[in-house]
Design brief:
The chain has a five-stranded mixed barrel with strand order 5-8-7-6-9. By secondary structure, the chain is of the alpha/beta class. Strand 3 and strand 4 form a beta hairpin. The protein has eight helices and nine strands.
């Protein structure tokens, strides 16, 4: 049992899905897992382990932001021997061609978070996805006929930015969308030599102003879950 995860050794599978919302974790477990068992309720961050097509798999919420997911990723890796961490989250589109409910694979994560700047003494570190998981996700999407986009995303420490138009400098350089966790996840995974991948569903667009509801984000983003669970 760790500080923030009330599980015992062996309760968590080597592969875990990581939505930000703990209620999305509950929905994933109840919708896709066979015989899911809750292993964590600490701080309301629900976590479950079950099986999918005979293989053990876990899911747990991480909360919002780089610090939150970094804490959970660190404990999952160092205290529960998790080897594959797959974030399944929502994102805001930065590009006109990236539409609501599109699925995006994060090849790399640019960021305005200060954590890596502190860690690397002011130098830039480029957090990237694990190639094997990334490649498996592409193959799974092809098999299921799920269209995907892939590229650089932006991990932000700010949800309500003072300058709304600031996203345009990132979109100009091809950044696809914005979320709040991937740069932290990829960095922690790299530090401990394990595998990480982020799969995102576009929940809103900064370009058009379109949005999905919180309930839709919780329970309807099935395409990315189907991809994630297949590569698990």
């Amino acid at each position: 049992m760790s500080i923030h995860i009330g599980a015992n050794k062996g309760d968590i599978a080597e592969t875990i899905l990581l939505p930000g919302d703990p209620l999305r974790a509950k929905w994933i477990a109840e919708t896709f897992f066979e015989n899911p068992v809750c292993f964590n309720e600490v701080r309301g961050m629900l976590g479950y382990t079950g099986t999918y097509q005979g293989k053990r798999i876990s899911v747990m919420g991480t909360g919002m932001g780089v610090p939150s997911i970094s804490i959970y990723a660190h404990e999952l890796i160092t205290q529960f021997d998790v080897k594959n961490l797959i974030r399944v989250g929502s994102a805001g589109s930065y590009q006109e061609h990236i539409k609501i409910r599109d699925v995006v694979l994060a090849m790399a994560a640019s960021s305005n978070s200060g954590l890596n700047e502190q860690r690397f003494g002011g130098a830039d570190y480029a957090p990237t996805a694990n190639f094997e998981l990334f490649n498996k996700a592409i193959e799974a999407a092809k098999e299921k006929n799920i269209p995907i986009k892939a590229g650089n995303i932006f991990t932000s420490d700010e949800f309500y930015a003072d300058d709304f138009e600031s996203y345009k400098k990132w979109s100009k350089f091809g950044v696809l969308c914005v979320e709040m966790e991937t740069a932290g996840l990829y960095t922690v995974a790299a530090k401990h030599n394990v595998n990480a991948l982020t799969i995102l569903t576009i929940s809103d667009s900064l370009v058009t102003g379109e949005k999905t509801t919180s309930k839709e984000r919780e329970t309807t983003f099935k395409d990315m879950i189907e991809i994630a669970i297949e590569i698990a």
